[in-house]
Design brief:
The chain has 267 residues and is α+β, with helices and mostly antiparallel strands. The chain has ten helices and nine strands. Helix content is 49%, strand content 17%. It has a three-stranded antiparallel β-sheet.
Length: 267
């Protein structure tokens, strides 16, 4: 009976020793400075020694819970922020960031939307990275072609969710749990509401510029080609043309076939 006690209580003894050890050890908790800007923005700052990097994260009360009846609006807006600003297109923004070694990210959850920036702390490089971030936030262009591309990407993602049992289960669970609460719908939105955004965007263009877009196109290759074909069959009234290259079919099987071919070649 006594011989079994050390085996039974070994985990408990280990926990006790760890508790004794850490209770006498000062845990390294970073010092967080906090202040409020003249415009009311709350700032939290943590200084880290030894790393020549600056991480910035801007968080807005603009998550999918604020979508109203247009489910997916926050996610779509977030996805477009780095597609254009001032006279820069997406390539120009990417080049500005690349030449100073910076990384820009955007995203939206149910509770918030955010932009993140990681840059070297060298003054010249940090200045250009922050300037890019500032203009992306304050002067986004939301060009029609970028809107259409992002909208189609979201629609295809929603379609793929409908083919994933795990995604279907999560959407059903959240809907059952939250009912009519804004948390009930997925952050990406649903097809019916995202589809409404193209006519709305065209109407906004009409109001702002006195005329609507001349043409609307969608294109893609491989899996993107499959997406374009789906758009052609389901959203035919939304576009003037489709550019479909090598549409993928049963891509998981194609991936397995590639592995099989590689194994045969190696043998």
């Amino acid at each position: 009976m006594y011989a079994n006690l050390p085996l039974v209580h070994t985990p408990l003894r280990l926990i006790a020793w760890l508790f004794i050890f850490f209770s006498g050890t000062a845990l390294a908790v970073p010092e967080i400075e906090h202040w409020t800007t003249s415009k009311g923005g709350r700032v939290y700052y943590v200084k880290t020694e030894g790393l020549p990097l600056v991480d910035v994260r801007m968080v807005f009360d603009a998550g999918s819970a604020r979508d109203g009846s247009l489910f997916g609006l926050a996610s779509l807006t977030s996805g477009m922020l780095d597609s254009g600003a001032l006279d820069w297109d997406a390539d120009a923004i990417a080049q500005r960031l690349e030449r100073v070694g910076a990384v820009l990210g955007t995203g939206a959850s149910r509770d918030s939307a955010y932009l993140s920036l990681r840059s070297l702390s060298h003054p010249d490089k940090l200045k250009e990275a922050l300037e890019t971030l500032k203009n992306v936030v304050t002067h986004p262009t939301f060009a029609v072609k970028d809107f259409e591309r992002e909208r189609n990407r979201v629609l295809m993602a929603i379609k793929q969710q409908g083919e994933d049992p795990g995604e279907i289960a999560e959407i059903s669970f959240m809907s059952t749990l939250y009912g009519d609460h804004p948390y009930a719908h997925p952050s990406e939105g649903i097809r019916e509401t995202v589809e409404k955004l193209t006519p709305m965007a065209k109407q906004l263009i009409q109001t702002a510029y006195g005329k609507g877009p001349d043409r609307s196109y969608i294109g893609g290759c491989s899996n993107g080609g499959r997406h374009a074909m789906v758009a052609a069959s389901r959203l035919g009234d939304q576009y003037d043309g489709y550019l479909v290259g090598a549409p993928g079919y049963r891509l998981p099987y194609a991936a397995l076939a590639q592995i099989w071919g590689a194994q045969k070649w190696a043998a």
